[in-house]
Structure formats: C-alpha cells, structure tokens
C-alpha cells in the first residue's frame, strides 16, 4: 500500500462525504478508493469511517487522523515544490469555477496568455452562476461575485463589477422609455433569481443622497447571466447588466442605456479556496493571474467605478 496515496484518498473521502464523489474527484475507480481505505484501516488497526448504504461519516479516531493527514500531505507537497521547478512551471489538473458572464467575457478570452505562461497546467473551468461546494465537488478555487457567506473559505478580493440599466430598441419602441426608477414598476423587467435560494433579487438605484430599492414585476426570471443578456437583447424587458458586457451592445445598437444618471450597487469579486488545503503552485499562479487580469480590466479594477455611456455619434 502506498501510504501517502491512501492518506490522500482518505482526506478526499472525508471532504467529499462519500466514496463515489471522492473517486470522481481523484479520477480513480471507486473500487480502488474502497480498497485503499480498507488497507489503511487494517494497517492502523482502527476504524476511520462509519459506512452505511446511504452515507459515510467519520469516526472519532478518523477525525484525529484526518487532521494529521492534512498536515502531513501539506508538508510533503511543500517539500516537493521546494526541490523542484514546480513554482516556476506548475503542472497538473486545476479545477476552477467562475460565473458564466465573467468566464465568457473576461477569463476565457485571456486564457491564451495563461497557457502561454503555464503550459503544463490542465484547466477544467466550470462556468455557472450556481454556487458550488468547493470541497464536496473537488474544486481547487472559485471566482465569486457578491458578499461571501461561507466563512470556511479563504478569500482574496480581486475586483469589482458595476451594473447599468438598459433595454432593446424594440422594447422601448413598444413600451416607452422610463425616466425615473419608479417608472419601471409600469414596465416589464427581466428579473434574476438566486440559483441557490430561488430568491428574486430586488433592483437598487442611487443618485446622490437618493436611494431606491424596488422589487420589479416581470413575466420572466432567469438564473444564468448569458441567458439574462439574451433576454434583454430579445426585447423581453428592461434589464440590469454588467457594464462591460453591455458596452458592445450599446455600441452596435442592440441595447440602449436607461437612467444614466442613476447607479446600482457594485458587487465585489473574490477568488476563494478551502482553508484546509495546501495552496499548491498551480492554484497560487492562477489566483495571481486572475488578480492581474482583473486589475488590468477597465470594468473590474478595484480603484475605479466605470459608468456605462452611450456610444458616440458617428
């Protein structure tokens, strides 16, 4: 038995809450995972996990051993990296999750630069507005927008996103142009709801000392940013969109800016990763690359607050 591999498998089973998910995360057969855990328990002469047909839970001895495994595996990885070129040329599979809109508009177009710097990393980029459980789903790090609710994650704030209100010309031709946020209650609005809770988000507007927060009526609500953009362009209603996503659509006339003298609350962007994990070289370089990418993006850098503007007349 490879003791270090068995420790890694044990940690994955505990984190994932089961053999099947751990096997998927490690890309190993489930039988191999089960065999390694059994061999580890035999070698230690203790029961590490309680197994039923429905769930796997950790024993008291297993919990103590789990904490030691984390420290040992972290020390081993750090020792390996200190004696290799991994810090300069990290290798391996890297699983990252990012919101759909940010992934499509910002991260993916910049990936040729990332792979030019780190050609030995294999990236698995999950694009979804659904908040994932990093540990359960075997994700190394995630890009997240908004305030963070999970205090068990280490977070680095890397950017900020701004929103503006707009609609398609066809919609405005049919329903008219709102001139005040209160006017939107007589319009059709495309709402956005949380993929986690199902809650439909209110809309907020600020102008000087005046602030308005409104639940908007509408005949459609979505939970994916790309679908949300498509709904706005299709003329289904008024939308609140990311400034940098909206800009090319304002320029080519697919959308028109509304309520330009009002602003909406910006959202902070963080990169998060589990705190009980050794920050490997591949995760470290990705976090640094994302921070650099966002700091150079005019719509996301922390120290600026760009406003969407109407395209200049030709």
Can you offer a commentary on this structure?
The protein is an alpha/beta fold and 314 residues long. Helix content is 38%, strand content 22%. It is built from 9 helices and 14 strands. The protein has helices spanning 3-16, 19-26, 30-44, 60-82, 100-117, 169-175, 225-233, 243-251, 281-295; strands at residues 49-51, 56-58, 92-98, 121-127, 141-145, 153-161, 163-167, 190-192, 203-207, 210-214, 220-222, 239-242, 256-258, 267-274. The longest helix is centred in the N-terminal third of the chain and has 23 residues, at 60-82. The relative contact order is 0.15. Mean pLDDT is 86; it is low at 304-314.
Short description:
The protein is an alpha/beta fold and about 325 residues long. It has helices at about 5-15, 20-25, 30-45, 60-80, 100-115, 170-175, 225-235, 245-250, 280-295; strands at about 50, 55-60, 90-100, 120-125, 140-145, 155-160, 165, 190, 205, 210-215, 220, 240, 255-260, 265-275.
Q: What are the key terms here?
A:
disordered C terminus; alpha/beta; 314 residues; five-stranded mixed beta sheet; single chain
* Mass-distribution shape: elongated
SS content category? alpha/beta
Strand content: 15-25%
**Which residue ranges are poorly predicted, with pLDDT under 50 across at least 5 consecutive positions?**
304-314
Largest sheet: 5 strands, mixed
Could you tell me how far the N terminus lies from the C terminus, measured between alpha carbons in angstroms?
Answer: 72 Å
- Helix proportion range: 25-40%
Summed up, the helix count is 9
